[in-house]
Write a structure and sequence with these properties.
- Strand 5 and strand 6 form a beta hairpin.
- The longest helix is centred in the first third of the chain and has 15 residues.
- The protein has one domain: Riboflavin kinase-like (Elongation Factor Tu (Ef-tu), domain 3), CATH 2.40.30.
- The protein is α+β, with helices and mostly antiparallel strands.
- The chain has 2 helices and 10 strands.
Length: 168
């Protein structure tokens, strides 16, 4: 695996159906997570599930909670990691700040194509794809993935983004 430093990588992504559990679990989790990290203050209690065009391994989170007992029984604890991202949806000029939501007990945790995202409340009716920007220092792409990237032009599924191209 090769790591690309100090750049953002832009991936095309498909919005896919999830398990449907995040809507109820995030209502309990977010208030507890916000006690440790206020940056998610405006996040909606639900996730957008994205399937990236290329598989990635996550290397570094921006923030990770201590174990939180969020279940009604209080017996189960879980940690939550977050990686800041930006999303761009077709027909919309403004990037939207979001976070890869990495629940330690999530079944999605072992899928290097599909990720859960939390962000502000969005109307995504009729939207099936988007672009996602991820810091290259937070991810690792396989050598075959790097080869694919280098062979693609402006319409590639994933591409390097100039450093001055900020998330906001």
């Amino acid at each position: 695996m090769a790591k690309m430093k100090n750049q953002k990588i832009k991936f095309n992504a498909k919005i896919v159906s999830g398990l449907g559990a995040a809507s109820s679990t995030l209502k309990r989790q977010l208030p507890l997570i916000r006690k440790q990290f206020n940056f998610i203050q405006n996040c909606w209690p639900g996730t957008i599930n994205l399937r990236l065009s290329e598989p990635v391994n996550l290397l570094n989170v921006d923030f990770e909670t201590t174990p939180i007992a969020w279940t009604p029984s209080g017996k189960t604890t879980e940690s939550f990691g977050f990686i800041e991202i930006a999303l761009v949806f077709p027909g919309r000029l403004k990037r939207v700040q979001g976070w890869l939501y990495l629940a330690s007990n999530s079944p999605h945790r072992h899928d290097n194509h599909t990720f859960e995202v939390i962000t502000q409340k969005l109307n995504l009716e009729g939207v099936s794809d988007c672009q996602i920007y991820i810091r290259s220092s937070a991810i690792e792409i396989s050598r075959s993935g790097l080869k694919k990237l280098s062979q693609r032009g402006i319409n590639s599924n994933a591409e390097y983004v100039p450093q001055d191209d900020s998330f906001n």
